């Protein structure tokens, strides 16, 4: 079996007047993530990691912010497209983890739903994609509540 690892990182600014979408789940917060799409950093980090592992480019080149097609789009579509490109290369998700870096809101109650939504979009079997959260001790832009960041690692395996 051939294995390929990918890593993705993203961050978006928190602004008033937008819904907060993280890992495909809408979370009550009173602020949301700015972005050309729905701003879902967890989905972006995962899609980036999948594209990298598949050798299929990166998020910026696949889904440019200048393309009106992606305006306000559900970012799970980026993950679905990354899964399609991986499948085209005879690769599937073997294991994946997404870490969300946020001071607020509290995300613990939403992690399972986020893992389920991201896993389904990635065409991953249940139970192999995990979402965790850290506050990074209140440091930096996430600590000040200016934005939310995410990091993802993905292992793709060749389909025989
Ligand atoms: Mg992004």
Task: Outline the structure in words.
The chain starts with a strand and ends with a strand. The strands form 2 sheets. A 5-stranded mixed sheet has the order 4-1-7-5-6. Strands 2-3 form a two-stranded antiparallel sheet. α1 (41-54) packs parallel to α3 (76-88). It has helices spanning 41-54, 59-62, 76-88, 111-121, 140-143; strands spanning 3-16, 20-22, 25-27, 31-33, 91-101, 129-134, 147-158. The protein has 5 helices and 7 strands; from the N terminus they run ββββαααβαβαβ. By secondary structure, the protein is of the alpha+beta class. The radius of gyration is 15 Å and the shape is globular. Bound molecules: magnesium ion (MG). The site of magnesium ion has 5 residues, from β1 and α1.
pLDDT below 50 for ≥5 consecutive residues: which ranges? Answer: none
Mean pLDDT across all residues, rounded? 95
Which of globular, elongated, flat, extended, rod-shaped describes the shape?
Answer: globular
Binned strand content: 25-35%
Taking all Cα atoms into account, the compactness measure Rg is: 15 Å
DSSP helical segment count: 5
Largest sheet: 5 strands, mixed
Q: What quaternary form is this?
A: single chain
Name the ligand types. magnesium ion
Helix vs. strand class: alpha+beta
Assign a percent range to the helix content. Answer: 25-40%
Task: For the record, give the distance between the C-alpha atoms at the N and C termini, rounded to a whole number.
Answer: 8 Å
The count of β-strands is 7
SSE arrangement, N to C: EEEEHHHEHEHE
Reading side by side through the largest sheet, how are the strands ordered? 4-1-7-5-6
């Amino acid at each position: 079996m051939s294995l390929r690892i990918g890593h993705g990182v993203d961050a978006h600014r928190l602004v008033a007047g937008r819904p907060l979408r993280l890992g495909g789940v809408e979370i009550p917060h009173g602020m949301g993530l700015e972005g050309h799409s729905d701003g879902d950093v967890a989905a972006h980090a995962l899609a980036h990691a999948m594209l990298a592992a598949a050798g299929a480019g990166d998020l910026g080149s696949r889904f440019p912010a200048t393309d009106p097609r992606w305006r306000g789009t559900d970012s799970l579509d980026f993950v679905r497209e990354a899964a399609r490109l991986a499948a085209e290369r005879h690769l599937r998700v073997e294991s994946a983890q997404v870490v969300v870096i946020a001071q607020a809101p509290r995300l613990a109650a939403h992690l399972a739903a986020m893992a389920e939504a991201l896993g389904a979009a990635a065409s991953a079997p249940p139970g192999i994609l995990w979402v965790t959260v850290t506050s990074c001790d209140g440091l930096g832009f996430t600590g000040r509540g200016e934005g939310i960041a995410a990091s993802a690692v993905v292992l793709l395996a060749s389909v025989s």
